[in-house]
Design a protein that fits this description.
By secondary structure, the chain is of the alpha/beta class. The chain has one domain: TIM Barrel (Alpha-Beta Barrel), CATH 3.20.20. The chain has 13 helices and 9 strands. Helix 7 runs parallel beside helix 8 and helix 12 packs antiparallel against helix 13. It is globular.
Length: 296
């Protein structure tokens, strides 16, 4: 190729960069809306969105970063990164242990945001931060959401924030274009579901049981009733979490929800194989691949 042609090609590439926005925000689509759009796209092809929870800093910072990238390669559609907290009321033993270990190694909200920014340099799939309210409050609501935006985080989940107290944080997330994922449970009344669903941007996190994460699901009856209630009041995407143990649970929940969230089952595999990174990546990857297959 002659020098003149190469020069013209470089100019064309440069012009394309100027004319074609690199980010959703530049196209007028917020990250929360983009997150929601993913669910609608999957609906069109009758596929469920697979959301994988991993704890920031567990087993250690570098290990957890590599585990996230392993999950992406294995087929996860969304990654939920948990910011460890000393009193994780909604979490069962597996995630509580992971949180404690991460805290002992110095993980906190600021480091989790730094890790998120590093990860987003390697993958563009949606990344959510799950944090209890206290760490966000101590960090500063506006500062946390601003730093999450800078880190290219797509949305946040705050499991212990009741809808009655969520207005300020929801407003701030909207200002930054971040998704806000509220939780609903089988005990939520229809009126409460209506109120909670209005705060959602991205999807609604449906808790399968009244227990903690990792609790075994004995029946999907309550989850089915919850799904039916939500469908009667909103078209927003829904995802079921808490107690999803493997592909069979995914297949059972799939007809009722747009997405599936798996956390404790993945954390238990990590705990079992963490002494060998190679084995851990292999086992986690194969497990997530089996979950993704069940989503199709």
């Amino acid at each position: 190729m002659c020098a003149g042609t190469e020069k013209e090609e470089r100019k064309l590439k440069s012009l394309k960069k100027e004319l074609i926005p690199a980010s959703a925000e530049e196209r007028g689509i917020s990250r929360g809306e983009r997150l929601e759009q993913l669910f609608y796209e999957k609906r069109e092809i009758n596929e469920k969105v697979l959301i994988i929870y991993l704890c920031a800093g567990y087993p250690d910072l570098d290990f957890s970063r590599e585990l996230i990238l392993t999950a992406v390669k294995a087929g996860a559609d969304i990654i939920e990164v948990g910011i460890p907290f000393s009193d994780p009321l909604a979490d069962g033993p597996a995630i509580q242990h992971a949180s404690q270990q991460a805290l002992l190694k110095g993980m906190n909200a600021a480091k989790a945001l730094e890790m998120a920014a590093d990860i987003k340099k390697c993958t563009k799939i949606p990344l959510l931060l799950m944090s209890y309210y206290n760490p966000i409050y101590r960090y500063g609501l506006e500062k946390f959401c601003g730093d999450a935006f800078k880190a290219e985080v797509d949305g946040i989940i705050v499991p212990d924030l009741p809808v009655e107290e969520s207005e300020k944080l929801v407003s701030i997330t909207r200002n930054f274009g971040l998704g806000f994922v509220p939780l609903v449970s089988p005990t939520s009344t229809l009126e409460r579901l209506k109120r909670i669903s209005k705060t959602a941007l991205g999807f609604i996190y449906c808790v399968s049981t009244t227990g903690t994460t990792g609790s075994t699901i004995r029946s999907f009856g309550d989850a089915k009733e919850m799904a039916e209630k939500l469908r009667s009041i909103t078209q927003k995407p829904t995802a079921l979490g808490f107690g999803i143990e493997g592909p069979e649970h995914v297949r059972m929940a799939a007809p009722m929800f747009d997405g599936i969230i798996v956390g404790s089952a993945v954390i238990r595999i990590i705990e079992h194989f963490k002494k060998s990174r190679e084995s851990c990546f292999k086992e986690v990857g194969e497990f997530i691949s089996s979950l993704k297959k069940a989503c199709r």
